[in-house]
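The following block was generated as part of the benchmark described in Methods. Ligand: cytidine-5'-diphosphate.
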Amino acid sequence: MTIQETAQDAVPTGTHGHGRRPRREAPRFVRGRGRYVDDITLPGMLHLAILRSPVAHARIVSLDTTAARAHPKVKAVVTGADLAERGLAWMPTLSEDRQAVLATDKVRFQGQEVAFVVAEDRYSARDALELIEVEYDELPVVVDARRALAEDAVLIRDDLPGKTDNLAFEWESGDAEATRAAFARADVRVVQDMVVPRVHPAPLETCGAVADYDRVEGRLTLWCTSQAPHAHRMLLATISGLPEHRIRVVSPDVGGGFGNKVPIYPGYLCAIVGSILTGHPVKWVEDRTENLVSTTFARDYVMHGEIAATRDGRILAVRSHVLADHGAFNAAATPTKYPAGFFGVFTGSYAIEAAYCHVTAVHTNKAPGGVAYACSFRIAEAAYLVERLVDLLAAELGLDPAELRRRNLIPPDAFPYATPTGWVYDSGDYPTALARLLETAGYDDLRAEQAERRARGEPMGIGLSFFTEAVGAGPRKDMDMAGLGMADTCEVRVHPTGKAVVRVSVQTQGQGHETTFAQIVAEELGMATDDVDVVHGDTDLTPFGLGTYGSRSTPVSGAAAALAARQVREKGRLVASSLLEAAPADVEWERGAFRVKGDPGRAVTLAEVAVRAYGPDAPPSPDGQGALEANVCYDPASLTFPYGAYLCVVDVDPGTGKVSVRRFVTVDDCGTRINDDVVEGQIHRGLTDGIGLALMEQISFDEYGNCLNGSLMDYLIPTALEVPEWETSMMVTPSPHHPIGAKGIGESATVGSPAAVVNAVVDALAPYGVRHADMPLTPSRVWEAMQGRAEPP
Ligand code: CDP
C-alpha cells in the first residue's frame, strides 16, 4: 500500500486528538472478545425460529400447528392469525408502507415470515418448524420489474385498500423543460440502458435479537443488531404499544451493517412477542440463508440514461428514467421526502446546465427493501449512471475520458455549488484531484502500455471515475425517518480527575467510533485520547439521535461531539480564570491549555481545572447545569460532500472472460480527517466492495421467484484474493459548515469504485466492439460480450 503525502500530513494535526492511531476496539475484536447479540446468554433464555414461505406468491389456505405445539421442548407457536388478534400482524416500514410481521392472508415473497416457534434450544425450535403444516394456493408471480405494471400482472398488494396495480411510487427531480431545451441544442447525444442489479449488504454478522420482557416491572430490554437504536425503540414502542420509556434497546458490537441493519425486521418483533408470551428471554438469530433471502436488499435499478454535449465536449444536460424494484413491501430506509434516496445527485461532479430524472418504483414478489448499501441512499446508483454516461460520451466524441472529465469538472471557485437538481455542494478542488490521480497512476504510460498490449491481442482496460457523495443527513427540517428529524445529540462530561466520557447517539458497526469520537473530544479539550471513553449503543445510556448509516456519524454526531466539548471548555475557562487569578476575558485557550493572554507561561490544563470545577469553591456553572458537562443536539446546516477520483486497471483473459484488477489508484477528499488509519480502512473496504459489486455480486431469481443466492457459495463477495494493493492518496478540503471541517468517508469508496471497474472492463473490451456491459461482469458475461452477445442481466 502506498499512502501519498497529503495536504493534511503537511499541517500539524493538533497535539492531542486527531491523527493516526490504532483503533482501541481492535484488541477486543482480534482476541475474539467482541460481544455480539449472539454472545448474549440470559438465565432461562429460550430460542426462536421462523417458518418462512417456500414460495414467492401464494394464498395461505390452511396452517396447522398442532404437531409443533406437541413437541416436548416447544414453549410457544405463533401464527399471523395469533398476531392479528393482538393487532401485531403488520408493522409500518421506514418508507410509509406496511409489512407483514407474519403472513395472514398471502405470502408475497420467498422467505416471508409465516409463523414462529419458541423452544428450549435452537435445534428444537428448528425441528418444530418442520411439524407445522401449511397449505399454499400458489399464485402467478412478478419477478421482473419491467413486467410489474403490465395489464395482466398479478396484483401483489391486495392488502392495501383501493390498490389496483403494482406501482409503489413515482418521483421526479430537476427541470424537464430546461433539460429538453438543452438536449435540443446539443451537437451530440448518447443514450444507454443499464442495470444496477439487486445486491445484498451481506454483513458477516446476520440480524438477530434477544428480547427480555420483565412482566413484573413491565419493562422490555431488547438487544438487537441495530444501526439506529433510538429510532428502533420509538418504532418498537409504536408497533407494540409498550411505553417507550420502559423499552431499552441495546445494540452491542455489530458485525457489519452496510444499511442492512437500519430497518426493523419481523424477527425483532417476534422475539418480543415470544418473550411476552413465555415470560422468558427469547433469542432469535438468523442463519446466512435467511439473511440473504429475506432481509433488505440494495440497488435493483433499471436505468435509462441520456447525456447531451457540444462537439467540443462540454456536457449540457443529463436525463434519466429509472425503474426501481422495491420488492413486496417498500421497506427502503430513506428520508421521507426522498423516496428515491439521493438519486437526484446524478449530475455527479460536473458543471451541467440542466438535468431531469424520473423514478418509477414497483412492487415485485421479492424480499422487501431497497437500503443504502454502504452509500448515502441511492447515490451509488446515481454516481454509476453519470460515470458510465461520461465514458460513453467520451467514446462517442473520440475524446480521452480523463480529458472529457477535466473539461467538465465543477471549478474550485464555484463552491458552494448548486446543482440543477437542487443540491448545494460545500467544498472541493476537483481538477487538482483529477490531476493528482493521473500523475500518481502514470496515466500516459498506462495508455501507451495499453496500445502495445492491444497490438498483441491482450485486453487491458483503464477505467476512471470521479464521484461526489452527499453525506450527513439532515438537516431535520428537510430529512426525517418515520417522522423523526435527522439530527444527533452528544453528551460530554469531564470527571473531577480530568477523565472524560462522551455519549453518542450513533452506532458503530466496525467503523472505529470508540477511537475517533474520543479523538474529537480529546482534540477539543487538550486531553489524551486514552482519557476519553465513548459510550454508545444503549438507549438508556445515550442521548437521542438517528443512528449510523449514509456516513452520517462524523458529519452529524462528530459535529455534536466537537460542539459539546467546546461548551465544556467554555465552562472550564471560568474555573481556569479563578485558578489563574485573571479575568475570564484575559484567559484564552491555546495549545491545549488555558493561558493568560500576554503571559502564556501562566497556564492550566483542563485536567487541572476539573478538580476545582467540582470543589466547594468552584464558580457557579453559567448554565446551572453540571460543572463540566454539556449536551448538544446538532442539526446540520446541510450535507457534506466528500469526493474522489479513482482509476482502475484491469486485464481480461480473452479465453475465459475473467477480469483481474491489476491496479487501483485513488484520491479521496473527506475534509479534515480525524484518524488517517481509520479513514484508510474505510476506503479499503469500500474499494473491495466496488470490485465485488462490479464483478461478482447479484441476487437473482428464477421465473418462479425462487432466490438463487441463498449462501455465500452462490452470492460471491470479494476476498483478499480478488483485490490488488491499493494505491491511495488524500486531499483535504474542509467542509465550511462543519465545526471541525470533517466530511463523512465511510461509504465514499463503495460509491465511487464500481464505475471505475466497469469503465475499465468496457475499455478493455472496446477492440471487441463492446460499448456497455451490465454488472456483475462475471467471466461468462464478459466472454459473451466479447463474442458480441449480451447475457441477460
Ligand atoms: O457513519 P459512519 O461511521 O459509517 O461513517 P463516517 O462518519 O464517514 O465515519 C467512518 C469512520 O471514519 C469513523 O470512525 C470516523 O470517525 C472516521 N472518519 C475520520 O476519521 N475522518 C473523517 N473526515 C471522516 C470519518
